[in-house]
Each structure stands twice: as C-alpha cells, then as structure tokens.
Design goal:
single chain, alpha/beta, Rossmann fold, 3-stranded parallel sheet, 4 helices, 3 strands, globular
Length: about 100
Amino acid sequence: MEVIYTGLHQTPEQIVETAIQEDADAVGISILSGAHMTLVPKILDGLKANGAEDVLVVLGGTIPTADADELKGQGVAEVFTPGAPTSEIVEFLREKVAA
C-alpha cells in the first residue's frame, strides 16, 4: 500500500487533482475544523466531474452521526471518528481496495 501525504490545508480542488494525477484508489480526508459538510461534497463532486467517482473516499474527524450518515449517502465509503483503531481503518481499506 502506497500512501501519498499532501499536507495540511489542501483545497477540495487540490485533493481531486492529486487523486487524479496519482491514479489513487482511495482518498483519506481528516477534518477537525467542522467544515466537513462543505468540503467533502466538493471533493466528491470534483471526483465525479473528472470521471473518478470510483475512487474510494474515507473521512476521519469529529463528525456527528447525522452528518456521517448524510456524507455516506453522498458517496463517502466510511467515516472514522476519534478513537477508531488504526487496524480497523487498515482492514477496511484492505477489504475495499483491490490489491
């Protein structure tokens, strides 16, 4: 599994561009700012607009359950909240992303 870390404070457009340039199978987003309901839909829309809607999107952060449900309905594969074991995240990715 190769991980490409793009750093903090990336715009949705930058995230989409990187995912496409790197031919990513998955994108992991960590948001602690509370802007998840604004930023994540823009990422999902950007991936779709670029023909990359098959890229798995996972989200981590302090995300209320209702927001997590809404984002999953929009296409987020999974939401991991604080305290989620790293092993759970890795196992999820191994199950969902072809090797």
